[in-house]
Amino acid sequence: VHDVLEHARGVVTVNSGVGFEALLAIRPLVCLGRCEYDTVAHAATPGTLVDAWRRACAEPHASREQRYARFVDWFLARHAVDLSRPRQSEPVLRRQLQRALAQVQPTHAAA
């Protein structure tokens, strides 16, 4: 993926890890679906793809780099866990586990 991105003008994806890699490579990015990075990608439908691609490619590199960096910083602060720091990572892991369990455990309606 990295070798291809190095030579790619940009990325069009529905929902793929390649889209996130495009952020890290600071490539123009167009998204046709929902994904964790869709807030910073140029959104498109099949009917608006050409216009979205043009907007993505026309964005100045410095502006794209700033937007992507803000998103990646936010994303990592919210979702990444630094396991090299056990004291700091334990509460984060506990919180993530509680969120995950809340999503899969059935809720009981009050009688």
Plain-language structure description:
By secondary structure, the chain is mainly α. Helices cover 56% and strands 7% of the residues. Strands 1-2-3 form a 3-stranded parallel sheet, sandwiched between helices. Strand 1, helix 2 (17-24) and strand 2 (29-31) form a beta-alpha-beta unit. The longest helix has 19 residues, at 61-79. The model has no long low-confidence stretch (mean pLDDT 90).
| Number of DSSP-assigned strands | 3
Please tell me what the overall shape is: globular
Secondary-structure content class: mainly alpha
Largest sheet: 3 strands, parallel
Rounded to an integer in angstroms, the radius of gyration calculated over CA atoms is: 18 Å
Number of helices: 5
What is the end-to-end distance?
Answer: 54 Å
Strand order of the largest sheet: 1-2-3
What integer is the average pLDDT?
90
| Uncertain stretches of 5 or more adjacent residues | none
Range of strand content: 5-15%
Helical content stands at 55-70%
Order of helices and strands: HEHEEHHH
Q: Nutshell version of this structure?
A:
It contains 5 helices and 3 strands, in the order αβαββααα. It has 111 residues and is mainly alpha-helical. A 3-stranded parallel beta sheet has the order 1-2-3, sandwiched between helices.
What is this structure's SSE topology?
Layout: H1 2-7, E1 11-13, H2 17-24, E2 29-31, E3 42-43, H3 49-58, H4 61-79, H5 86-104
Parallel strand pairs: 1-2, 2-3
Question: What are the key terms here?
Answer:
single chain; 111 residues; mainly alpha
